[in-house]
Structure formats: C-alpha cells, structure tokens
C-alpha cells in the first residue's frame, strides 16, 4: 500500500502514542480535582443533574465532561487517574482526526492534512489538554466536529439536513462542556473567515436546514441550564457570578495573548513564520485555503483579546487553526527546502530543528546534572530517554545537513513521543517532598482515634479529591460552627492558624501532624501553603 493511503492510520497511531501513554504520571491538578470530585459525587450520591462539589452546588460549568469522566470511572474505577483522564484523551483524538478531515476537504491534499494534524497533535497546549481532565478540550473538540459538518453543509449540495442536524448536536455538546467559550473563540472566527474567503453561496437552499441546526443547537445547549435554574434557586446566583468573571476576574491588557504562537511549543518558530502572510502567500500550494486559516487564526486571537478576563490556557482554540496554518509552511519546506538559497529562509529552519536536535544530544549530560538527586529508582527511564533523545538528535542533524526536511519533521514528532513515553515517568525525579503525607491517610487516623475530621475554613479541591469523600466544613458562609462531638479533628491552613485559636479559645487544641501534598518539599519555591494542612485534635474542656 502507498504511504499516503495510510495517513489516517499513522495519525491515529501517533495520537495514541502521545495522548494515551502514561496518563497517570502527573499529579491531579486543581482543575481536574474539581471535575473528579463532581464525577465521584455523581457515582456515589447520584448527583447527575444538580451537580455538586464536596456536597455543595456546582453549576459554574456544564456537566458533559464530568458525565464522561464518571462513565469512564464507573468502568475502570473511580480511583484510577488514567481512567479519569481517558475521556479527555479520546476527545483530543477526535479533535485531531476531524481537523485532518477538514484540512483534506479544504485543500484536497492528504499530505498537507497529515502534516498540519501532526503539528496539532504535538502542539504544547493540545498535548497538555489531552492529558488533563479539564473542560477546555471537550468544548473545542466537539466544536471542531461541528465546524467540519458546517463546512460540508456550506460547500456541498447533498445531505444538507443530515449535516445541519449533526452539527447542531455537536454544537450543543460543545455548549454543554463549557458554555459559549468555543462558540466565541472558535466557531465565530471560522464563520467570519469562511464568509470572507469562500462566501456563503446558494444560501436560499440552506435556510431551512440552517433553522433546523439552530433549533437542535439551542435545545441541546440550554436544557441543562433550564433544569438547574428551575429546580435549584442557587443556580441563578452561581450563573450570574460566573458570567461576571468574564469582565472582572483575571483582567489582563488587550495585547496579553499576542505571543500566542509560543504555545505551540516545538512549532513556535514555524508557527510565527507561517503567520507572515506577505512572505508565504506566494509560496503555498493553495492560496485561498491559506488565507482562510490565517484569518481564522488571527480573528480568534483578536476576539479573545477583546475579553477582559485572560488566561494562557484560553489560547487552546487558537492552536487549532494555527496548526492548519503552520501546515502550509511545513508543506512548502517539504517541496522546496533543498533548493532554497536565501539564508533568510534557511536560517530559521536550521535554528528551529537544530535547537531540538541539540537538546536531544545534550540531554544525557544536562538531564543527569538536573535530575541526579532524584534518579534513584528512576534510572531505567532516564537511560531509555537519554538513548532515545540522543539518537533522535543525531539523526536530526544528519538529515538537516542533507536538507531532508520531511525526515527532520517526522523526527520531531518522534522527539515528542519519546518525551511522553520515557520522560513523563521521570517526573517523580523532580517531585521530591520528604514530608509528603497524603490526605487519604486521614482515614487511618480517624479509624484509630475514632473521631471525625473537619476542614476549618475552606476547601482545596486537590486535598478533598485525595481524601476520597466529602469533608464537612466548619466555616458556613462566614460563621464557624462547633461540632456536636466532645472530641474531633480539625484541618487548618497556615493562614488560618490564628483565626482557629480565636474561634475555639476555650477548647483544648493538640497539634498532631502536617498533611502535605506538595510535590516538592518546604524548601522549594513552588511549595504552596494551600496544599498542606495542620491536623489538630480539639477537645471540649
């Protein structure tokens, strides 16, 4: 079989190697913990529609990603981090595969579609989101499927109702994942760019199926919000607060996102060059499609920049059209790099891939110097990673000097795969906390002392997740309650120690231990007070 006939299979295998291997290597972060706690309470308490976190209403985000997480946990186990992250990995796989199909439809060129999809699958924020049980990858993954179907709807004269209805369904799934985020950051710039470049032709024959699209999209998007607002009065206030955050929380200047191309990781320089439209427009094989991906990318950045609330992870939707845009530049290098004479064109290529090759060759020495204190028990992974990266680096330089840019490109993909396979298990070598004591061990203490443990002031999701069940708070809307028991345990953050003494001045307070879930020890700059608690036994005198 010809190589080009296997592009989709090769893409599938590459995504599997990047998204599904070592899913449980990194600790659960705050965003994941919220999602996982809600999934656990869906399974344990049946809170599938009126969703909760630690027993309290949680309507800030729609529930579809959490439902999928709960289904996976029901099959593979609620304590399996791999199972909890699996739906996000599957969603990213679908995102990349449908992006491939969209790129193929745009250009009728399978090699370009393959290149751009590989760039997408190995872009930093895409990889991070695929391996992280949070909402963003779901809303944008479903929206990419919707966009693909809408593209077919606008350019084909057949199956209009089918494409419109399915697009409406996946639009609704996107909305049920994170509200209107992807509508604004991915679909709207797509529609504007499509209208500018391709125009909306024969619209008279499409308005009825378009109404069907809008109807399905509205119903699927809104039913859960209607349900929570109807059956829980707290939902209205939570929704209002979440909406207000868009203009009052994490406020950053308009230009905050304008280093967006750096979020693609190893593709930073190619992504930047691909955005130099005057330079590349006469070098690409399809000017119209290139203009479309360029406009889609830039419009997405501009629209995101207009929103006062800004976080670097919100740039995830930009990486999708940017990968398609960068694919045009890499495809141009495939065709032309051997003949290029102008150093202004060759030097950035040599620098970008040469830097990756240099990192690979230098890793055995540099990695040892950086990781030596934590390599005990991790030598196998370090040796495997060193051999893989060193070999890839050597082959990259060899093929770079021979101007075999296609081979260099595929070696870059192999570089990312090697880091995922052999590098992620090494995370244990850089996360050393001699005082590490997980919250899950609290159950042993509760059983031994026959007492109940409370949290004094506020919930930290990672700690509640590790505890394994709901934990009662003594702080009830600013008022501190006194448990009925004569003797009980209290977990207190460092910031609340003085307040704790003030609230219970006439009680005997015995300090027992510190439960610290920081990956690094107290001497590290990254040691966070929010990830540890002091345990006290409080007795009534």
TrEMBL record:
InterPro entries: LipidA_mod_glycosyltrf_83 (IPR050297), RgtA/B/C-like (IPR038731). Residues 61-226 form the Glycosyltransferase RgtA/B/C/D-like domain. Pfam families: PMT_2. The keyword Membrane applies. It is a multi-pass membrane protein. Keywords: Cell membrane, Glycosyltransferase, Membrane, Transferase, Transmembrane, Transmembrane helix. The chain crosses the membrane at residues 67-99, 111-131, 137-154, 161-177, 183-200, 207-226, 255-277, 289-308, 314-334, 346-371, 377-398, 405-424. It is found in: Cell membrane. This is Membrane protein. It comes from Aequorivita vladivostokensis. The lineage of its organism: Bacteria, Pseudomonadati, Bacteroidota, Flavobacteriia, Flavobacteriales.
């Amino acid at each position: 079989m010809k190589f080009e006939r296997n592009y989709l299979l090769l893409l599938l295998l590459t995504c599997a190697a990047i998204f599904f291997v070592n899913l449980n290597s990194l600790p659960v972060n705050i965003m994941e913990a919220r999602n996982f706690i809600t999934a656990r309470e869906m399974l344990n308490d049946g809170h599938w529609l009126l969703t909760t976190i630690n027993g309290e209403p949680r309507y800030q985000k729609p529930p579809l990603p959490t439902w999928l997480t709960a289904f996976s946990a029901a099959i593979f186990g609620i304590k399996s981090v791999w199972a909890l992250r699996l739906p996000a990995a599957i969603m990213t796989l679908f995102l990349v595969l449908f992006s491939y199909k969209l790129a193929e439809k745009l250009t009728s060129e399978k090699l370009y579609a393959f290149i751009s999809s590989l760039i997408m699958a190995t872009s930093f924020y895409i990889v991070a989101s695929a391996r992280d049980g949070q909402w963003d990858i779901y809303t944008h993954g479903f929206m990419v499927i919707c966009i693909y179907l809408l593209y077919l709807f606008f350019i084909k004269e057949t199956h209009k109702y089918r494409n419109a209805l399915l697009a409406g369904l996946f639009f609704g799934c996107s909305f049920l994942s994170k509200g209107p985020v992807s509508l604004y950051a991915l679909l709207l710039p797509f529609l504007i760019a499509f209208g500018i470049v391709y125009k909306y032709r024969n619209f008279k024959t499409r308005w009825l199926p378009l109404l069907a699209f809008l109807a399905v999209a509205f119903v699927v998007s809104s039913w859960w919000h209607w349900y929570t607002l109807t059956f829980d009065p707290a939902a209205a206030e939570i929704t209002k607060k979440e909406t207000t955050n868009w203009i009052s929380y994490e406020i950053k200047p308009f230009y905050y996102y304008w280093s967006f191309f750096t979020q693609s990781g190893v593709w930073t320089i190619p992504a930047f060059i691909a955005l130099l439209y005057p330079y590349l427009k006469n070098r690409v094989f399809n000017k119209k499609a290139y203009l479309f991906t360029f406009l889609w990318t830039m419009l997405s950045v501009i629209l995101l920049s207009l929103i006062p609330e800004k976080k670097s992870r919100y740039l995830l939707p930009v990486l999708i059209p940017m990968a398609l845009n960068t694919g045009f530049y890499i495809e141009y290098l495939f065709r032309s790099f051997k003949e290029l004479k102008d150093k202004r064109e060759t030097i950035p290529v040599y620098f970008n891939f040469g830097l990756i090759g240099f990192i690979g060759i230098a890793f055995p020495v540099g990695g040892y110097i950086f990781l030596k204190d934590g390599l005990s028990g991790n030598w196998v992974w370090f040796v495997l990673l060193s051999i893989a990266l060193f070999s890839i680096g050597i082959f990259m330089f060899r093929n770079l000097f021979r101007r075999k840019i296609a081979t260099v490109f595929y070696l870059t993909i192999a570089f990312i795969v090697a880091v995922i396979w052999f590098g992620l298990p090494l995370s244990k070598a850089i996360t050393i906390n001699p005082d590490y004591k997980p919250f899950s061990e609290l159950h042993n203490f509760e059983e031994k002392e026959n007492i109940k443990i409370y949290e004094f002031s506020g919930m930290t999701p990672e700690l509640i997740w590790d505890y394994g069940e709901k934990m009662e708070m003594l702080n009830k809307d600013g008022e501190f309650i006194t448990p009925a028991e004569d003797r009980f345990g209290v977990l207190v953050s460092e910031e609340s120690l003085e307040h704790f003494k003030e609230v219970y001045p006439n009680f005997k307070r015995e300090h027992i231990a510190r439960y610290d879930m920081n990956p690094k020890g107290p001497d590290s700059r990254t040691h966070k007070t929010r990830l540890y608690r002091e345990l006290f036994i409080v007795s009534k005198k």
